[in-house]
Amino acid sequence: MKKNNTPTNENAKLDDLEKNREYSDGQFITTDHGVKINNDHNSLKAGERGPSLLEDFIMREKITHFDHERIPERIVHARGSGAHGYFEAFGNVSEYTKAGFLNDTTTKTPVFVRFSTVAGFRGSTDLARDVRGFAIKFYTQEGIFDMVGNNIPVFFIQDAMKFPDLIHAVKPEPHNEIPQAASAHDTFWDFISLMPESMHMVMWAMSDRAIPRSYRMMEGFGIHTFRFINAEGKSTFVKFHLKPKLGTHAVVWDEALKISGNDPDFHRRDLYDNIEMGNFPEWEFGVQLVPEEDEHKFNFDLLDPTKIIPEELVPVTKIGRLVLNRNPDNFFAETEQVAFHPGHVVPGIDFTNDPLLQGRLFSYTDTQLSRLGSPNFHEIPINRTIAPMHNNQRDGHMRQEINVGRTSYSPNSLNNGYPVQAKEAEGGFVSHYERVEAHKVRERSESFADHFSQAALFFNSQTEPEQNHIIKALRFELSKVETVAIRERMLGLLNQVDKKLAQQVAAGLGLAVPAQPEKPINHGVGADADPNKHEPKRVDKTYQPSRALSMVNNPTTTKSIETRQVAFVCGEGVNEKSVNALKKALEAKGATAKIVGPHAGNIEGDAGTEIKIDFAFFSSSSVLFDAVYVPSSQNNAALADNDNVIEFINDAYRHCKVIGFDADLDTLIKKTTIGNKLTGGKDMALPGIIINKEISKTFADDFTTQMGKHRIWEREPKISE
Ligand code: HDD
């Protein structure tokens, strides 16, 4: 029996998954082996009050399966959420790549995307300060292409050799397993303070990019430089970008902390609910292209994953769009078992010698062997390619495929040589014909030694509130570090990025910036090599600030309020005209009104209509919404007396959200922070505080327009205050 939402579209991967879907509607309960069960509530016993019998194969099977339900969580990126969708090419890159799915504008390529945090365990909060994983599995006609990226375009380290160290440092400390899903502890900052190469990434990770508003409002990046290969075998360097249609948005840190308590599944719920509501998340897929001849044209190395190519130097060309339009049917089967690998490429895409990428090419298959337990993980439905798959790999735990015939080797004559190799013209993958001539060394290239210039570029490209948030984040994180020497070492590194930044962080820590930054240690040198080799370079001041690096100033950010949620704080006998007028205006712009009331269930409006309450004051908080509106009600006094309501409004004010009030709520307003600020009476303008003097279109227009600013930053106190 098919479920109602079984796809009827032409998504070949969803059709492929149908073979494995199980629907129990109208069916008998059976054992794993198909025997109908007569009593699933009681074990087999010798007498009603007697001992259980070993013979009970039904209970043994059920309990045994249960005992083995868990698999090891991912060593990193354990916490995540996924969705199905498709990719549609614009068809404008055939000059650079022969990859079919990037050129064929007639076929939608099915995708499965998994978003994740990095450090936390599987059950940790979505709102941790962390990098977000953005992994896309493209089920192309030519096999699987995985883009295993993040929402930040650079990485902490330059060589995969350091990955286990980085992860050991950031994960909870080994003696007491504290803290969960947080980098604010000694081991992380100890490592970072000794790794100047991480400074660019640290700027991003301390910015609000690390606390997104929604997975739907994040950029995605492939990070490494890859290669496009065209039909003539010509290579072009490429960096992958995803730009969200709704713009790139974040919450603020105090909000993140409170969301973690109010709804630790905030991002997971947001993704799931919006897809269910038909608000399909969408990104433009873009590339930065660099001709091979320009490889050494930049003042950084294209192979260095701690560097971006500023968009002002090489613009992003849009080459397609990615849409997510279906939730998984089963979290474990799909989101948990999906296995990504940066080494899954198709003809037309190839690797570079980025030493971080090269190490990843080993790690991802290896990890699936312990996580999913068998080399046959590619047969798990979510991982299965929709392209034809034939080879001489055989057997192993849980093999699904029944390979017919006598031969499992090549060359063979008994099966006429099949399966046969594909020539390049027949779609066979041929590695890029790159000439490599070098000594075998354990070293790092001097071209990787500039650790501060792009960190400074990032910091100096931010607006003032964004810079303040970076400073506050560093204060928060380093204040949790107990070892003073680590704090000081970090100040030394920050001082090399930007003096104001270091001073402001130091002030928060009650420390002075060390006069002489401790000399950063060097890497990539053997025990007997010169430790001063490739000393980190000082900031290159020739970089121009880049708007693309700021979320507030970002050229792609729109004033759209689509899919945003507004809390309507309603008392008994709420003014229905007020509620309906703003609700209508919001819905016209794609936003939603949520009724927050004094209890669960319904309230009665002033005209007698039963209004369904979505959240109660005692079980929600304004951190879960993008803006707040308080319509007048017959019992305004009860609203003003409710501590939860006052806190709701105060938080919204603190978090720079738009707040609207009907005109007769003076008593309530006076009890909030806003009351204290409105010294000249309620008519005195406060940014983003809108008083609805009469139910008018002007109020609704003003409210929705102000919401389009996303945050009222001028309200935020300056860092020095
Ligand atoms: Fe990784 C998972 C992204 C460096 C080793 N990584 C993983 C996931 C993402 C990334 C998004 C989760 C995929 C999913 O949702 O299942 N990793 C990155 C990025 C990196 C990076 C953007 C640097 C640019 N990773 C990296 C290195 C190594 C690994 C250098 C090892 C040398 N990553 C892994 C892993 C994981 C993983 C241990 C854990 C689970 C998995 O692979 O499937 O193999």
UniProtKB/TrEMBL annotation:
Biased composition annotated in UniProt, kind: Polar residues: 1-11
Cross-link (3'-histidyl-3-tyrosine (His-Tyr)): H341-Y364
GO annotations of cellular component type: cytosol
Protein's UniProt keywords contain rRNA-binding: no
Biological role: Decomposes hydrogen peroxide into water and oxygen; serves to protect cells from the toxic effects of hydrogen peroxide.
Protein name: Catalase
Entry coiled-coil feature ranges: none
Organismal lineage: Bacteria, Pseudomonadati, Bacteroidota, Flavobacteriia, Flavobacteriales
Keywords for the protein's UniProt record, in alphabetical order: Heme, Hydrogen peroxide, Iron, Metal-binding, Oxidoreductase, Peroxidase
Residues covered by the Catalase core domain: 30-418
Domain of life of the source: Bacteria
Annotated EC: 1.11.1.6
InterPro entries listed in its UniProt record: Catalase, Catalase_AS, Catalase_clade2, Catalase_clade2_helical, Catalase_core, Catalase_haem_BS, Catalase_immune_responsive, Catalase_large_C
Any one Gene Ontology BP term: hydrogen peroxide catabolic process
Active site annotation, chain numbering: H77, N150
Required co-factors: heme
Region (Disordered): 1-20
Record has Metal-binding as a keyword: yes
Sites where the protein binds heme: R74, R114, F163, R360, Y364, R371
Gene3D superfamilies noted in UniProt: 1.20.1370.20, 3.40.50.880, Catalase core domain (2.40.180.10)
